[in-house]
Design brief:
The protein is mostly helical. The protein contains 23 helices and 15 strands. It has four domains: about 170 residues, 3-Layer(aba) Sandwich (Rossmann fold), CATH 3.40.50.620; about 80 residues, Glutamyl-tRNA Synthetase, domain 2 (Orthogonal Bundle); about 60 residues, no CATH class; about 100 residues, Arc Repressor Mutant, subunit A. The strands form six sheets. Strands 1-2-3 form a three-stranded parallel beta sheet, with helices on one face. Strands 4-5-8 form a three-stranded antiparallel beta sheet. Strands 12-11-13 form a three-stranded mixed beta sheet, with no helix packed on it. Helix 18 packs antiparallel against helix 23 and helix 21 crosses helix 23. The chain is elongated and about 110 Å long.
């Protein structure tokens, strides 16, 4: 068969010699040992915890070695493309302090651009044409119906599904049959003509899992689809070579495709990058473990953590705990250190499934939030409110002095006794909202309406905003005594039957009237922050309920 003529018929026109691409995309000038890694998502609009898991590993490996992390967009499947998805990827990963050196919508070293696969279509066709000329690729005219019937036949026979061996119907078409199909205008794809034998095993060193054995590929996989756009398998091999990727860290679900990728690199004459297949993120579901699911587990999506307002460092700390077996010990010794100082190693990555525990992440988040200064906490909450908060919440930051006083009182920010029960920005904003909005009452009064109104009226008449805490409490006790409530807690405990209750019950009325809650920080301090006019209005409103 005249393969050169066939290649010209299938992919007509002049293509640059492949040496042109080798010169256009030269080896990178980097320090010895520097790694070039990448994140290469599809533009589907959904970026998940697994993406972050791989991104942290790739970022640490690249930057600790003095190398490069780039973003490539694998947009060969237009049906899955979502508008704005690339920007969403960059934004989500930026939130977690993952910074790319170059790539789609980022720029950087233009030598290796473009970073969208559809913009590199000519490159893939040039390499596909060479494979056809060498007899390593061929046109396949099988219809979707024929391929479906083939899979059904293989399934019925309990055989491996795919296009291989005796099932590769177009592999051995004669030259006459090929041209007859082409002249008839039949659509076709280009398939790799595999030379693999499934009886043979390949020893492979996985950067994460160590020595493994895989079966040689015998599948004649599609390399160019009917529209001339490559499949993922073909495009990624060419791109990883020309972008000079040295190490590919990816999910272990790609292990099944490894034999295909090995054969593609060999067929193209490329030196393979090293591959490391990181473990899947698992979840405890009753007595069993399963992979996190997009359908079942909202916590799989990175948008979940941004909308809830998880502190980025906390999520990163937890991810590093799962990624490197010695990180937790390092973190305990260096709780406040820059995470970039941790000596991340591929060899320390987990070889089996990691159990993702949201409760453990919450504990880390509480601890990390408790370390923030007033300025840091304010900036974090403001950033969250601007993107995900309500219009009212965005105005919490109009008065920096008031916000600082609120954070100091409610969270212990800036003090020795730090609050450690707040997990996210959304939770923290809800916790302080009564300082800025008159929110619905969440707790019920335990004192009857008439007596409650009398207590509020008498306290309002006596209230003086300039009173210090001691003078303020004396007035609370006077109101309590006037209504038969004990003002001395020791006396109350000795003979509770003598009183309607204690001064604490009266204070609770004032607390709920002011904040809507029965449990809050020091009430005098709250009233000082709210201001005299607001306190009067809230107590009057409560009295009239």
């Amino acid at each position: 068969m005249n393969y050169k003529a066939l290649a010209e018929r299938l992919l007509p026109g002049e293509y640059p010699p492949l040496s042109y691409y080798e010169e256009k995309y030269p080896p990178r000038t980097l320090p010895k040992g520097a790694e070039v890694t990448r994140l290469a998502p599809s533009p589907t609009g959904f970026i998940h915890l697994g993406n972050l898991f791989a991104a942290i590993a790739n970022e640490r490996i690249a930057h600790r070695s003095g190398g490069v992390l780039y973003l490539r967009i694998e947009d060969t499947d237009l049906k899955r493309k979502v508008e704005g998805a690339v920007e969403a990827v960059i934004k989500a990963l930026h939130y977690f302090d993952i910074e790319f050196d170059e790539g789609a919508e980022i720029g950087g070293e233009e030598t290796y651009a473009p970073w969208y696969q559809r913009q590199r279509a000519e490159i893939y066709r040039a390499y596909a044409k060479r494979l056809i000329e060498e007899g390593r690729a061929y046109p396949c005219f099988c219809t979707e119906e024929e391929l479906t019937a083939l899979r059904e036949e293989q399934t019925a026979k309990k055989e491996i599904t795919g296009y291989y061996g005796q099932y590769a119907k177009c592999r051995n078409l004669t030259e006459e049959e090929i041209y007859r199909n082409l002249d008839a205008g039949k659509p076709y794809v280009i398939r790799l003509k595999s030379l693999g034998n499934p009886e043979n095993k390949i020893a492979f060193r996985d950067a994460v899992k160590g020595e493994i054995t895989v079966t040689e590929n015998d599948q004649d996989v599609v390399i160019l689809k009917s529209d001339g756009i490559p499949t993922y398998h073909f495009a990624h091999a060419i791109d990883d070579h020309l972008m000079r990727t040295t190490l590919v860290i990816r999910g272990e679900e790609w292990l099944a495709s490894l034999p295909i990728h090995i054969e593609l690199f060999d067929a193209l004459g490329f030196e393979r990058p090293r591959y490391g297949h990181n473990c899947s993120l698992m979840k405890q579901d009753g007595e069993t473990r399963r992979k996190l699911s997009k359908r079942k587990d909202p916590e799989l999506s990175l948008e979940f953590y941004r909308k809830e307002g998880y502190f980025p460092r906390a999520v990163k700390v937890y991810m590093l705990t799962l990624l490197n077996s010695n990180f937790e010990e390092w973190y305990q010794k260096n709780p406040d250190a820059d995470l970039a100082e941790f000596p991340f190693k591929v060899e320390k990555m987990s070889k089996s499934g990691s159990l993702f525990d949201l409760d453990k992440l919450n504990d880390i988040s509480k601890n990390e939030l408790s370390k923030l200064s007033i300025e840091e906490m304010s900036a974090f909450l403001k950033g969250w409110a601007e993107e995900f908060g309500t219009e009212a919440q965005r105005h919490y930051f109009d008065d920096a002095e008031k916000l600082g006083a609120v954070l100091s009182l409610c969270m212990g920010v800036g003090g020795k006794k730090r609050r450690k029960d707040l997990t996210t920005a959304s939770q923290a904003m809800k916790f302080i909202e009564y300082f800025f909005e008159r929110t619905p009452r969440t707790d019920e009064y335990r004192i009857g309406r008439d007596e409650r109104r009398a207590i509020l009226s008498e306290f309002l008449a006596a209230y003086d905003h300039s009173d210090d805490a001691q003078a303020w409490f004396c007035k609370v006790k006077e109101v309590a005594a006037a209504h038969g409530f004990a003002t001395d807690m020791k006396e109350y405990k000795l003979a509770p039957e003598r009183f309607k209750g204690s001064v604490a019950d009266v204070a609770e009325v004032l607390r709920i009237a002011t904040t809507g809650k029965a449990n809050t920080p020091d009430l005098w301090s709250i009233m000082q922050i709210l201001g005299e006019g607001e306190v009067h209005e809230r107590l009057k409103q409560a009295k009239d309920e």
